[in-house]
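Late entry, evening session. Most of the bench is empty. Finally got around to the prediction I had been postponing all week. Sequence below, unchanged from the version circulated by S.P.
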Amino acid sequence: MSTTLATRCGAALWVVAAVGYLIFEAVAAAGFAPAYSYAHNYISDLGVSAVSPRSYFMHTAFYLQGILFFLGALLIVGFPESPRARIFLGLITANSIGNIVIGTVHSGNVHRAGAALAIVGGNTAILAGSAVIATVGGWRWYRHISKLLAALGLLSLLMLLINSATSAANLLPDGAWERGSVYSIIAWQLLTAARLLRIPRQAAPAAG
């Protein structure tokens, strides 16, 4: 498989992962009892079978995101020699493991550890990944948007922790902050995939 084809396949996997995650999450939310609030409820509430009759959809969403995010990154950067690219792949691996953990264990300390791996690993991977993926003309804006998305994700996580520590909704409720820390990763996947898929074949970036 050529580097160009591998890159495009990796980008396509990221699109499938991101869109699939959002669809499965929405299907799980539609079956939640009582009505599910994207702003107030935690994402993981959708994975608890006692209150979420369609919890298996949320479990699938976590697995889909974790596995395809990793496989897509592997196709995009390969088995890199660059230390920076290795860090990127390591952070993606942390995110993948975290998603698989939260898709398997739905509450408790293990679940929280998985969530931390997924959120921190994914948002820091944005910073590493935007620097790793080689740029061609017009990519400067991409690096800036990537940094903004990572900052949004990490700030949202910080605000979620502050909410938990103070038992109050600071500016926004818990569900909104948690989604900010997760959707920043999803948004970056789609942004990067769209950019990679639009590059002419002969100009596709070489990772490293």
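Two things to note before I forget:
The radius of gyration is 17 Å.
The chain has a mean pLDDT of 91.
Will write this up properly tomorrow.
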